[in-house]
Amino acid sequence: MAPSTLVLHVGIHKTASTYIQHRLKRNQPFLRQHGLLYPKKRRDHLRLVKALRQGNFRPWGNLLERAERKGCQPLVSAEILSLVLAEPSRSAPGGTVLTDLLRFLAARGVELELVAFLRDQPAYLNSRYTQLIKRFYFASSFERYVAHTMRVGGGSACDFEELFGEALASPQVRCSFLPFRSGDGDPCERLLQAVGLSSCAGLQPLDQRANAQPGWQAVWIAQRLARLLRDLHPQAWRSPICKRRIREALERLAQEQGWQAEPFQGLNEPLLVRLEERYGASNERFAQRVWGCSWRELFPRPVPQPSPQAPRDRAERRALLAVAERLLAEGLGGASPG
Q1: Domain 5-136+157-194 CATH class label
Q2: Model pTM greater than 0.90?
Q3: Cα 26 to Cα 40, 41, 49, 204, 207, distances in angstroms
Q4: Which of 37, 44, 133, 322 has the most C-beta neighbours closer than 10 Å?
């Protein structure tokens, strides 16, 4: 790293970011020993992101000053930054949030380092969908969700040329893009090595259960519950507390029933072809520019193996419908049906 560098771990979503953040939080002394200042509380990172979106750089200035006093480089981790940095600037017409951040850092002689884990879009969108549908962010099918993302991007944007092109073109930014694949080693250690640590010996492990996918049965129930909440219980649909109550109960049930053994997989061959038509050329240019190889050398073409999209027989349907009704009743609690 340069003598004065701000390090941002920017995700993307569904690349073990929560695991990385918890492990970094646990290893404060190790990070300090190696010259990194990591805000301990998750809300501190999110406050920085919120301030960045608003064009308020005072919290960032405070972080830089604190790091300088301690002789450290600040390290901030928030996967939503992969999207935020590409958002339009509030103060510079035609610019982006990254433009604003670079201007702020340049005035202080600070360079920027971005670290991002990247996934092939089919795997990313499948995983992101299961996360969002179980949190009742929408009531869409997987195919409609993918079509919307390919068309407008939004909260699941994954055209990496569009997201990171400005950073790659800026001499003020050092970029480390790490392929996110099974078998590539611990992601937290890979991140730290990417920002200059020669060894992670002494980094304490994290005893944390993996954020397992809930399985296709849980996804089917979540899809049904999302439609019921949206259409019949608008007050509950607008209530984060109600949604969280239902989601947590569904996750517990999925674990008890072992539904994770049959993961949700919405990808089929026609949808894969559409994804390749949308992202293939961009992926290839990005891979050649960043890694000097073909995208498919790092991410081989998947073989679609769709999971069941609905209960397989009447008995299974009755059982899952009963579960959905019970979860809805318990989740609504005393809430008004709207």
Answers
A1: alpha beta
A2: yes
A3: 8, 11, 21, 7, 10
A4: 133
pLDDT in tens, 48-86: 999 999 999 999 999 999 999 999 999 999 999 999 999
Note the maximum CA span of the chain.
66
Q: How far apart (Å, rounded) are the C-alpha atoms in residues 234 and 227? A: 10
Nearest to 10 by CA among 2, 21, 1: 21
Please choose, from the candidates 251, 183, 208, the residue with its C-alpha nearest in 3D space to the C-alpha of residue 25.
Answer: 208
Q: What is the DSSP string of 297-331?
A: HHSPPP---PPPSS-SSHHHHHHHHHHHHHHHHHH
The SS3 of residue 117 is strand
Q: Hey, what amino acid is at 323?
A: V
**Enclosing H/E stretch for 116:** strand 111-118
> Taking the domains of the chain in order of start, what are their residue ranges?
5-136+157-194, 216-265+306-332
